[in-house]
Amino acid sequence: MATTPSLEANATKALDVIENLDMGFAQTVQNWLTPVYTSKYGAFFQQTFLDIPLANFILAILVFLFILILRKLFTKIVIVFIQKMARNTETFYDDRIISSLKDPLAFAFIILALHLFFLLIFKEGQTIKNILNTLLVFDIFWMILAVAEALRGLIYNITGKLDTELSREMGNFILRIIKFLIGGLGLAAMLQVWGINVTALIASLGLGGLAFALAAKDTASNLFGSFSLLADKSIRIGEWIKVNGVEGVVEDIGMRTTKIRSFQKSLITVPNQIVANHPIENFSRRGIRRIKMDIGLTYGTSSSQISQIIKDIKEMLQNHEGISQKDSLMVNFDAFGDSALNIFIYTFTNTSNWERYLQTLEEINLKIMKIVEENGSSFAFPSQSIYVEQLPSAKS
Q1: Which residue has the higher pLDDT, 205 or 181?
Q2: Fewest CB within 10 angstroms: 134, 153, 210, 255, which?
Q3: Which residues lie below 8 Å from residue 378, measured CB to CB, with a gap of 6+?
């Protein structure tokens, strides 16, 4: 609540800036128009359009267009020149700040053009002044937000000193809080321009404020959920997770929701309280991936052939660079199937990356096929044999 006096001061300063932008320009121009009105064409220029003298109306439009041309030149020449100078500095933050201020500064020219336009047509009443003040306050806080976004990398560096693993997640979270506070102050300043006492407005909410707080309990739960996610370090941006039936890659951990990109490329938004209160299966942190398969050999394969095939497969897996030697590695003849002699293979790759896992699995499958072929056996496929004890005689 202590911020109200400063907001009122900011609004007053904004009003002073708007009122002094013309620097006597309108009065000077009006003196220039006196010869026009007293000339032989004065009767024409003295005609009114929407209760505005025609000369003033034409001049207001010309001034408005002239300011827009200056705006174009400013963004095309001045900003580009400053950006080239900034590239010669050691830091890249000044480049980002200048680029981020390009649009807000261009919008300031529009505010100036509107101010001079309404001055020249004698229509800048209190309502127009309030609108222009509101636009100016909006532009100022737009600049502040743009600078905050441009310094995102600096925030990452600061949070990285606190926690290198969660620097990006913490940085995004802090930046959102900063933007929320800046936006709140900007809104309060714009309300002050219209004479609305923000402190009194908040105090007058009374029971309505209590009802609003109760209605916002889910938002509060999501906010605290985001705190717990960051504190527990259970997930990070870029990790493959599965939570509450939702599976995909984490794209963003916000103040209220976590965004997960599914493998169908759809974006799923999950409230943080759900993520925080349900078991999270984090596939990216397992480090290895399992290979589990059964291969079936034909019943014509001899016991010595099976023993040699098992030995060769196990040696191949033990010498393969893509197989983890620290984890379980089993190759066993485990069952007489209906139509095959089954060999069970159980091992792990030394990577959790899906692409490298598939490449390793492909190499292993091809080598198993070669081992089976070199040992004179073949893979079985579902089949049935029918034995007839006695064929019927030709006579019967």
Answers
A1: 181
A2: 210
A3: 297, 298, 372
